[in-house]
Design goal:
This protein is of the alpha+beta class and 414 residues long. It contains 13 helices and 16 strands. It starts with 24 loop residues before the first helix and ends with a strand.
């Protein structure tokens, strides 16, 4: 954990909460019911106030594209071009107006880190696309998970389930820490994934489990102690991402200094759920800033990041991302498609307490970063508008949602 910033911190619950240990369906349903009741009786949809920071013109441009009932509260955007970098904060949370040094939970945009590491590992001769998981993790030999290739893992074509269990999701909904044995250690995760069945192998199906397995393979192939050590030494340090940190249930506090408080869709402040070291690989608890993500985007665009631009290249069919047209594809965990006539590479992230989006336009040398402290749909439209200059806007948020488990059930928050 780095030195604290000027932003206020907020307290964390005890590292090993009761909710993290929920194992039965009945208990899980009860936890969800409590969470939904809490949502129903509290504040309503968050709103952007009049506070801004940074580039006043950019802040005004962003504010003009956000509906009053879009469900946003505190947003930071970074617009990168070959000529300049512009940062702007819009709104506030608990008296904090975000700036480029405010930490947000990056969520699934973290997966692109593993994409870059994969391209770098291939360049180093440590792995090959068609290697199987078992060729680097022998304990998976003879299991369905051991047979999948690294390319299948990197393109979400492995057939592995999105989640191995719902313990983390219940913890997230309840606003508690969410460690369970699948994320506390690599060994326990591998025992569980060795029992997993493949469903739909060869076709796109988003899988956090697959990304976690890929991250472990890369760490083993590099001789690293963990994925966290690997990404720190090979990506964060070379790129200069000094404010990007990871937290697990073993850290106190689990939310680092300088982080902005997240809000549920109805305005309730919430304590982010976190897990163990394997959960970090899929973006369970990555804390970063607009300034760090600007450095990251610039390094990928100019090819100086580990893995260069190789991770961006589409290698399989993907899933059509919101706002993206053309031939959708997926490279090493980066998604791609055509937007307003341009080939855009992007990834979004979302948790009940925040939404993130990073998009790159290599042809123009432009990129955009959007960080928000609430979970809203359509934040891609805001990012793509800033990236391409289109007239897209972020309209009313139709609902706040709670995602419930591997069955992909979605519940509207009251």
């Amino acid at each position: 954990m780095r030195a604290p910033s000027a932003h206020p911190s907020f307290s964390s619950p005890s590292p090993r909460s009761t909710a993290a240990r929920l194992k039965t369906v009945g208990t899980a349903v009860a936890a969800v019911a409590v969470a939904l009741l809490a949502l129903a009786v509290g504040p309503r949809t968050p709103h952007i106030d009049g506070h801004t920071s940074g580039d006043a013109d950019l802040a005004a441009q962003v504010r003009s594209r956000i509906s009053d009932d879009a469900g946003l509260e505190a947003v930071h955007v970074s617009v990168i071009s070959p000529e300049e970098v512009r940062h702007a904060g819009i709104g506030s949370a608990d008296g904090v107006v975000p700036d480029e040094n405010t930490r947000y939970d990056l969520a699934s945009v973290t997966k692109t880190f593993t994409g870059q590491l994969m391209a770098d590992s291939i360049a180093r001769g440590e792995i090959a696309e068609n290697d199987t998981a078992a060729s680097h993790i022998p304990q998976l030999a003879g299991t369905p998970a051991g047979e999948v290739t690294l390319l299948e893992l990197a393109t979400h074509h492995s057939g592995l389930p999105n989640f191995l269990n719902s313990a983390y999701l219940v913890g997230a909904i309840a606003g508690s820490n969410s460690a369970d044995e699948s994320t506390e250690s690599a060994d326990s995760f591998l025992k569980e994934v060795s029992r997993a069945k493949l469903d739909g192998r060869g076709s796109f199906s988003y899988s956090n489990t697959g990304v976690q397995l890929l991250g472990l393979v890369l760490a083993r192939a590099a001789g690293a102690e963990s994925w966290e050590d690997l990404v720190a030494s090979r990506l964060l340090e070379p790129v200069g991402m000094d404010s990007t940190v990871f937290t697990t249930v073993d850290d106190d506090p689990i939310v680092p200094e300088g982080a902005i408080r997240g809000r549920l869709g109805n305005g309730h402040g919430t304590q982010p759920g976190v897990g163990g070291p394997v959960g970090l690989i899929s973006g369970q608890s990555t804390w970063t800033t607009g300034a760090d993500l600007t450095r990251y985007a610039q390094a990928v665009l100019d090819g100086s990041a580990p893995g260069g631009r190789e991770a961006l290249k589409p290698r399989a069919g993907g899933e059509r991302a919101p706002g993206v047209g053309g031939d959708d594809g997926v490279g090493y965990l980066w998604r791609s498609g055509r937007v307003d006539g341009r080939e855009i590479y992007n990834h979004e992230g979302s948790m009940p307490w925040g939404t993130t989006y990073v998009a790159l336009d290599p042809a123009s040398g432009r990129a955009v970063v959007v960080l928000a402290n609430t979970f809203v749909s359509g934040v891609e439209d805001l990012g793509l508008a800033l990236l391409t200059g289109s007239g897209r806007t972020l309209g009313p948020s139709p609902n706040a949602y709670i995602y419930l488990g591997p069955s992909a059930a979605i519940l509207p928050a009251l």
